[in-house]
Design a protein that fits this description.
Blueprint: E1 15-17, E2 20-22, H1 33-52, H2 60-76, E3 79-86, E4 102-103, E5 105-119, H3 121-126, E6 132-145, E7 152-158, H4 172-183, E8 191-195, H5 201-209, E9 213-217, H6 222-227, E10 237-243, H7 244-257, E11 260-266, H8 270-279, E12 288-289, H9 290-293, E13 294-304, E14 315-317, E15 320-329, E16 334-343
Parallel strand pairs: 3-5, 8-9, 8-10
Antiparallel strand pairs: 1-2, 3-4, 5-6, 6-13, 7-10, 7-11, 11-12, 13-15, 14-15, 15-16
Helix pairs in contact: 1-2
């Protein structure tokens, strides 16, 4: 009888099913989650490549649709029972990747998915930095992603060196002094990322008066928040008010890196507050910690679309496209940066 080829551990090689990895059952127990994170990376790569063709063309809706369609196609190819818990919006508002949408092929684990196929639609349309494609995932029963209401969220994000020393309830000038001490810097060497919005005028003024430098971003605080978790990015933290759904995806990255996130929901209407009270357990006015937003076994993946604080953008060369991505797992603390080259079809005039 012909023996099947096995790897060094004695287990049979993986089979591909719709692009996803699937292992045959053997006496050796294999944790599929070890490999699934690379499939999720393939999802953000596909969305980044699709939307990159619209960079600088001024057509934000077309770019977003391209990213959504590519991401949806890849998610549907994976062997899993996935539900979108954070997506492009409610079903009536978002024909692609709407909240509650079911994705995947039969036979896989039940998974929560939080996505932003194109974080920074204006950034992509204008060809400006920090547009990314991002995804967070958790296997039900092993991890959890909070189903965040569509409202604002005040955020404080710091890397591992500053975890445990900051407090969102104290003045920002105090937090930046605590951060500087933990980082071994002077306050005037610290850089805080903030969305460039009128609502942040007093925050920006307070930090600058304390001697801190401010990195203003025109749109999309998610990529800058994640950059704050990387000691080599030059960004030491994120402060200010942004979207609550993006905050949950940020928390997944924070959980993977060992940083810290604190947040408070901000409402602009009674309707928003009532909706949040139905969706979120406990006091909606409390300070939310990292584990309130993302907990347990979580995977995070992101791919750059335009160059930014976190990742390089998609670069086209003759016959190829090049991406840079980051993928993380909270269960192991693994962080991988991956550069991928995609061969493109030859052009008709070549």
């Amino acid at each position: 009888m012909k023996r099947r080829k096995t790897d060094h551990a004695g287990s049979p090689p993986p089979k591909r099913n719709g692009g996803g990895l699937r292992y045959n059952k053997t006496d050796l127990e294999i944790n599929v989650d070890q490999y699934k994170h690379l499939d999720f990376l393939r999802v953000t790569e596909a969305a980044a490549l699709a939307s990159s063709k619209w960079v600088g063309k001024g057509q934000r809706d077309e770019a977003d649709q391209a990213a959504c369609e590519a991401m949806r196609h890849e998610l549907n190819s994976m062997e899993m029972d996935a539900t979108i818990v954070i997506g492009e919006g409610e079903r009536d508002e978002a024909p692609m990747l709407y909240i509650g949408e079911k994705l995947g092929q039969p036979g896989g684990p039940e998974i929560q998915i939080a996505v932003d196929p194109l974080e920074g639609t204006n950034l992509c349309a204008n060809g400006t930095p920090n547009a990314i494609s991002v995804l967070a995932a958790a296997v039900v029963g092993q991890g959890n992603l909070m189903h965040a209401p569509d409202c604002y969220m005040e955020k404080l994000v710091v890397g591992p060196e500053c975890a445990g020393i900051v407090d969102i309830t104290v003045p920002p000038r105090i937090n930046v002094r605590l951060m500087a001490k933990a980082l071994g810097k002077d306050v005037d060497e610290c850089i805080i990322g903030i969305l460039d919005r009128p609502r942040h005028e007093s925050l920006i003024r307070e930090l600058r008066e304390a001697g801190c430098r401010v990195h203003l971003v025109p749109d999309g605080d998610l990529s800058v928040a994640i950059a704050a978790l990387d000691p080599d990015s030059g960004v030491d933290g994120l402060m200010g008010i942004g979207g609550a759904p993006e905050g949950v995806i940020t928390a997944a990255a924070v959980l993977c890196t060992g940083g810290e996130m604190q947040a408070r929901l901000k409402f602009t209407s009674d309707e928003q507050r009532e909706r949040a009270e139905k969706m979120v357990s406990g006091d909606v006015d409390r300070v939310f910690r990292t584990e309130d937003l993302a907990s347990g076994n979580v995977t995070f993946a992101a791919t750059g679309i335009t160059p930014g604080d976190l990742l390089k953008g998609v670069r086209f060369r003759h016959g190829s496209a090049h991406t840079e991505s980051i993928v993380m797992r909270s269960s192991t603390g693994m962080i991988r940066r991956i550069e991928t080259t995609f061969k493109l079809g030859r052009r008709e005039n070549d």
